[in-house]
């Protein structure tokens, strides 16, 4: 958990022109048992260590020019209780402007923060996220739309077969699964006219590949359980708990990170 992801070093090896000045991602354990990603950012203009918790819950530790990452993390640990309070307060506030995704910036992929790496291969800009990469004819300074295309591809390859697998496992009549750009929900379930024979169609938000697999499984199971109960009654939640006992943890993740996935 404490393993440091030294993004600047990773990027330096890949693409020496676009190293964001000293940005690193660390994992900080909070007193309430959760852990949050912390962006450690070195600033030539800062004179002391500072912690900033932005709307959306992003935690940033500013390191002065002569400071160290080690001291920055110690500073963050000393203020962990304060950070936990701020994260709780800010997590539900939507960031004012979606921030551009720069080379090396962290992005959620399967629940982990990974750097969006940019490199030039055979003259073409190529973006990679963990084990996935894609070449583009042209890329602007904001890598968000290129990163979305990679994630949409992963979602289309992986989510429908997973939904069919879970439907078969739990005996749910599923007629169709589609991956969509849902703006306000993680998934949807639509009954056919004769649900008992025709089954239902579920739509899944492609951003689910940004969540941990247990969380995206929960969303699929949630939609599948709507085939049995098309409401959020106690009976529905009992069905959900039966197939996904840790569903409350998944719901918590979705609430906490809903502003951290790509827009
Ligand atoms: Zn529902």
Quick rundown:
It is flat, with a radius of gyration of 21 Å. The longest helix has 26 residues, at 144-169. The protein has helices spanning 7-14, 69-78, 80-90, 144-169, 195-198, 213-228, 234-243, 247-257, and strands spanning 23-29, 35-42, 50-53, 59-63, 106-109, 112-115, 117-121, 124-129, 132-135, 174-180, 187-191, 200-205.
Main β-sheet description: 4 strands, mixed
- Beta fraction of the residues? 15-25%
Unreliable spans: 1-21
Specify the overall morphology.
Answer: flat
Number of strands: 12
Strand order of the largest sheet: 1-2-4-3
Q: For the terminal residues, how far apart are their CA atoms?
A: 27 Å
The average pLDDT value, as a whole number, equals: 83
> What's the number of helices?
8
Give the name of the CATH superfamily of the largest domain.
Metalloproteases ("zincins"), catalytic domain
Q: Which kinds of small molecule does this entry bind, naming each only once?
A: zinc ion
Fold and architecture overview:
The two termini are 27 Å apart. The protein folds into 2 domains: 1-97, no CATH class; 149-257, Zincin-like (2-Layer Sandwich). Mean pLDDT is 83; it is low at 1-21. It has helices at 7-14, 69-78, 80-90, 144-169, 195-198, 213-228, 234-243, 247-257; strands at residues 23-29, 35-42, 50-53, 59-63, 106-109, 112-115, 117-121, 124-129, 132-135, 174-180, 187-191, 200-205. It is 37% helix and 25% strand. Strand 3 (50-53) and strand 4 (59-63) form a beta hairpin. Helix 4 (144-169) packs across helix 6, helix 6 (213-228) crosses helix 7 and helix 6 (213-228) packs across helix 8 (247-257). The chain is built from 8 helices and 12 strands. By secondary structure, the chain is an alpha+beta fold. It has a 4-stranded mixed β-sheet, covered by helices on one side. Bound molecules: zinc ion. Zinc ion is lined by residues 222, 226, 232. Zinc ion binds at residues 222, 226, 232.
């Amino acid at each position: 958990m404490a393993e440091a992801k030294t993004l600047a070093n990773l990027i330096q090896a890949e693409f020496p022109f676009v190293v964001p000045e000293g940005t690193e991602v660390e994992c900080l354990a909070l007193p309430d048992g959760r852990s949050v990603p912390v962006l450690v950012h070195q600033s030539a203009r800062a004179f002391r260590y500072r912690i900033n918790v932005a709307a959306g819950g992003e935690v940033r530790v500013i390191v002065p020019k002569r400071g160290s990452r080690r001291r920055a993390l110690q500073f963050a640990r000393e203020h962990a209780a304060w950070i936990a309070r701020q994260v709780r307060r800010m997590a539900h506030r939507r960031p004012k402007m979606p921030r551009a995704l720069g080379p090396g910036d962290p992005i959620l992929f399967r629940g982990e923060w990974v750097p969006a790496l940019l490199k030039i291969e055979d003259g073409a800009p190529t973006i990679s996220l963990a084990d996935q990469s894609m070449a583009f004819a042209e890329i602007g300074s904001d890598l968000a739309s290129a990163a979305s295309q990679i994630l949409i591809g992963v979602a289309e390859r992986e989510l429908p077969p997973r939904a069919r697998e879970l439907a078969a496992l739990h005996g749910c009549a599923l007629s169709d699964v589609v991956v969509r750009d849902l703006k306000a929900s993680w998934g949807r379930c639509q009954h056919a006219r004769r649900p008992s024979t025709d089954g239902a169609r579920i739509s899944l938000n492609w951003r689910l590949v940004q969540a941990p697999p247990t969380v995206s499984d929960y969303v699929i199971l949630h939609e599948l359980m709507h085939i049995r109960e098309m409401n959020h009654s106690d009976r529905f939640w009992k069905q959900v708990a039966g197939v996904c006992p840790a569903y409350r943890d998944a719901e918590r993740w979705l609430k906490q990170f809903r502003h951290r996935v790509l827009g």
